[in-house]
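Weekly modeling sync, notes
Attendees: S.R. (lead), two postdocs, one rotation student

Agenda item 3: backlog of single-chain predictions. S.R. asked that every request posted to the team notebook include the full sequence so nobody has to chase files. The rotation student volunteered to paste the first one in as an example of the format we agreed on. Action items at the bottom.

Example entry:
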Amino acid sequence: MSLSQLIKESYESSCKGAHRVGVADELAGIAAGAGTVTIPLFTVIGGPVIITNMWGMVTVIIAAAAGTGCTPILDHTPASAAPLAAICTVAVDIDSDAVGSMYTWSGAVGGVLGPATQMGVSSVAETLFVGEYLVLVPGVINVGNAGNDAGMTGTIDWYLNYIPCAPGSFIEPA
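Predicted structure, as returned to the notebook:
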């Protein structure tokens, strides 16, 4: 077995996944303005993890009460006294996005979270994440609204892949 095959096998055996099923119209509870009110998506438990990919998929059409301002952003609130850390600080308006719309970003802190232009392994947003891993300590991954509309409706399922960095570290839906 070659070294590259050994590395690939090691990665595949250590990579884990988590899926958080969206709750009907929970987006309506997010207040307008970054960081004011967030929805917990995932909880990091037991030690640090490396996030290798994260994406959301619309399961109920997204709609804003005023027709503007559905702009999701992601952050991480550590369980320790460390301050909140932005994961994705730039977002695009997702108002009226149809069921099946998929939101990805490059994995870079401060990167853009937006609809994928193409589905599948060849999507640019999906392939860029390979070089932009996120290391997160125990805490909560949240979604908030950077837009002006607090009356959003719709449902998004969230998925992520991660590698535990310590024995007993894992991620579960919040």
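Discussion: group reviewed the output briefly. The chain is about 10% helix and 40% strand.
Action items: rotation student to repeat for the remaining queue; S.R. to check formatting next week.
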